Amino acid sequence: MSELAKKSATYEDLYKIPDNMIGEIIDGELIATPRPAPKHARATTVLSNIIGPSYDRFGEGGGPGGWIFLYEVEIKLGEHILVPDLAGWKQERFPTEIEHNWIPVAPDWICEFLSPATLRTDKIKKMPVYAQFGVAYAWLIDPRDKTLDIYSLESGRWSLLGSFVENDKVRAEPFLEIEINLADLWLESGLSRK
Question: Is 36-192 a CATH 3.30.470.10 domain?
Answer without folding.
Answer: no
